[in-house]
Design brief:
Blueprint: H1 2-11, H2 16-23, H3 35-48, H4 55-58, H5 62-83, H6 88-106, H7 113-125, H8 130-142, H9 151-161, H10 163-172, H11 178-198, H12 200-205, H13 213-219, H14 223-227, H15 233-253, H16 255-259, H17 262-284, H18 298-324, H19 327-330
Length: about 325
């Protein structure tokens, strides 16, 4: 019976509601689920959403890929629980259930297939509970907060909705030093801000406004302008201001790439440069994002990848160069 259930869950990796029927609150306990089956489900889920998770199959060492799949599956379920029901109260209930599953996982009593797989990742890499809990808290906030009055409040939200992902990645890389976490937070916050400014129109369509009230007031962009999606000088100045701030966050996190092991430098470069490229596209559009969503294409991605590889090779050559100098040269003061 359990094997058949595993097959069924594999069939529904793209259908949240059917997955919820199989593994939602009050469903059959997964106590008899084998870890290999749970890992297979997380792997299928991540690969089914490949466009959002390419790093696991492109650049990561093979021994880390399953652990990335497990973390992705956790994030994917939390995101779907928050967004796919269409009912904030129901979403809040489901997220509370997901938090209880997280508690069970850390208590050694995982029942859901995602938590069964995730438990081995948590134990092997000694990952703390906080980043996982922060993500749930951010999704819960989405159910009741639709706009932010200050930029500091928006940064606080990014600290729970974006930064935990980078922290989890550093845990998997065993590179979670305090200074690395600071740089990672800068990159993750910058990426989220870039996505907010890219998706001003899309977010407004679903009732969310991330342009802080204090900034709209400062630049003279009224609530009626917002409601009518007016592109006027006040809006263009407002958007330029937000792009500059997001770019500063991304650039301040770039030193992280200099300190990670070589192959991971490419990943960090791609994430950070991808955010910077989005901001460049916004600027090139004249900051007119209400009716033209800036985006980066495959050619952009290929170019960023090649440049990231070249920069990584350049770092390695700079590190090797002193050791390759002639001893007589090195002796010259």
């Amino acid at each position: 019976m359990m094997a058949a259930r595993v097959d069924r869950m594999g069939d529904h990796v793209n259908d949240f509601h059917q997955a919820l029927e199989l593994w939602g609150p009050g469903r059959l306990s997964a106590a008899a689920l084998q870890p290999d089956d749970a890992s297979r489900y997380c792997r299928q889920l991540a690969r089914a959403h490949y466009e959002n998770f390419p790093v696991a199959t492109l650049l990561l060492p093979r021994h880390l890929r399953q652990h990335f799949y497990n973390i992705y599956a956790y994030c994917r379920w939390a995101d779907d629980l928050a967004d796919e029901t269409g009912d904030p109260q129901r979403a809040a209930e489901l997220l509370a259930w997901w938090r209880s599953g997280l508690d069970d996982c850390f208590a050694g009593e995982a029942r859901h297939p995602v938590f069964v797989a995730l438990a081995s990742t948590i134990n092997q890499f000694n990952i703390p509970r906080q980043p996982f809990a922060d993500l749930i808290a951010a999704f819960e906030q989405d159910q009741c907060v639709t706009e932010y009055h200050t930029f500091d409040a928006l940064l606080d939200y990014c600290g729970r909705s974006a930064n935990p992902v980078g922290r989890l990645v550093l845990c998997l890389l065993r590179q979670d030093r305090p200074e690395y976490l600071v740089w990672s937070d800068k990159i993750c916050t910058g990426l989220q801000l870039a996505n907010f400014w890219q998706d001003v129109a899309r977010d407004y369509d679903i009732g969310r406004v991330y342009l802080p009230v204090e900034d709209r007031v400062h630049f003279g962009y009224s609530d009626s302008d917002l409601a009518d999606r007016v592109t006027n000088p006040a809006f263009l100045n407002l958007m330029e201001f937000q792009v500059v701030r997001a770019r500063a966050h991304l650039r301040s996190g770039l030193p992280l790439a200099d300190h990670l092991p070589g192959r991971f430098q490419v990943d960090i470069e791609l994430f950070a440069r991808g955010g910077l490229k989005i901001l460049d596209r916004i600027e090139q559009s004249g900051f007119r994002v209400w009716h033209n969503r800036p985006r980066i294409g495959k050619r952009d991605v290929c170019g960023m990848f090649c440049r990231a590889v070249l920069r990584t090779l350049g770092r390695r050559l700079r590190l090797l160069q002193p050791h390759q100098l002639d001893p007589a040269v090195e002796a010259v003061p």
